[in-house]
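Exercise 7.
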Amino acid sequence: MRKPIVAGNWKMNKTVAEAVALVAEIKAGLQGLDAVDVVLCPPSTALQAVGQAIAGSKLDLGAQNMHWEKSGAFTGEVAAPMIRELGCHYVILGHSERRQYFKETDEIVNKKAKAALAAGLRPIVCVGELLEERESGRTEAVVGAQVRGSLAGLSGQDLLKTVVAYEPVWAIGTGKTATPAQAQDVHAFIRRVLKERSDDHIAQSVRIQYGGSVKASNAAELFHQPDIDGGLIGGASLEAASFLAICRGAL
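Solution. The predicted structure, written as tokens, is:
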């Protein structure tokens, strides 16, 4: 039985003071959510403060990005050991915004995933198709290539420590959401791809999140699909009540 995981991706939002205030609100509403892994992914400037604020709670900490090298002349970048030192257990890799705005390729995401695992982090590897790719019937070709490329060379044990997040790019921040049936179809396809490159036990054990305009009103129906194991939540994670309601949708 896969334990649902709901991660809040705060993106480039929240000062340190605002982040700590949001954590306090979320912590106050965690009752009854022991059956869900809840991860907060603030901007890097707030990682340490949020890590301190969630200490002793059931909340976990994640970063939004990292470099694949342990150190070096990479101005403005942060390495896996650095975020691990701050208490991170998860890191989001290959988000569609990173792929679109910063031209990250599957090869780059793969290098980051390997570096994250080597540092004791659990990667949340994002995949998803553009609207024109879906409309031209290329969803499986695009998503399959991203899964295979981003996870290339990972062992079965590595895959068990990895979360895959399916984010249809056309549904991120647009208010559009894949129907539960559409989302389930792609999640089931991703699980088949995982089986191809590992085995059925591992494929059935890897958690696959859905991300793309998830709200309190649609979370439960999405998360109760057989191959959907929670969500990677953007805008709705910036307000405690909506984020907690989404987390409850995974119960």
